[in-house]
Design goal:
The protein has 132 residues and is an all-beta fold. It has strands at residues 43-48, 52-59, 67-69, 81-84, 89-95, 99-105, 110-111, 125-129. The protein is globular and about 25 Å long. It binds calcium ion (2 copies).
Length: 132
């Protein structure tokens, strides 16, 4: 004995409008950084100013003196903004292996545009430090 069942699919196809995120290069008087785009305890860095474009760094350091190597084809000499959501200072270096010219990002400091601190498209590696 088999009972015929009618299966109705009640899926309403709603047109989901996906708004394309436009990377705006904001001026100095820009709004507060989008801290939500980087998890607490992480250091995040993007190829564009204003935390836009590819996110080449998403690193959760666990102490000082640790080095993060930005990929040669994935971020070297491209970084233009950063969010430091750690309690450590993050030193960005112009060369691999924490070598060369450097710039120190304070604990919890956002860098909305590396151009403003003279280090745009320059970082190739990072290192944690107790303070700047
Ligand atoms: Ca860039
Ligand atoms: Ca590198």
């Amino acid at each position: 004995m088999s009972a015929a069942r009618r299966i109705t699919t009640g899926l309403a196809a709603t047109g989901a409008a996906v708004a394309a995120a436009t990377a705006l290069t904001a001026g100095p008087a820009a709004a507060a950084p989008e801290a939500g785009t980087c998890e607490a305890g992480y250091v995040c860095m993007w190829e564009d100013a204003g935390y836009g474009g590819d996110k080449w760094v998403n690193w959760q350091p666990s102490g000082t003196g640790q080095i993060f190597e930005i990929g040669g084809w994935n971020g070297d000499n491209e970084i233009s903004s950063a969010l430091n959501r750690t309690g450590w200072a993050i030193v960005v270096y112009a060369d691999d292996g924490a070598q060369g010219d450097s710039y120190c990002i304070h604990a919890y400091q956002p860098i909305q545009n590396f151009k403003e601190v003279g280090f745009n498209d320059d970082a190739e590696s990072l290192m944690t430090q107790g303070s700047c």
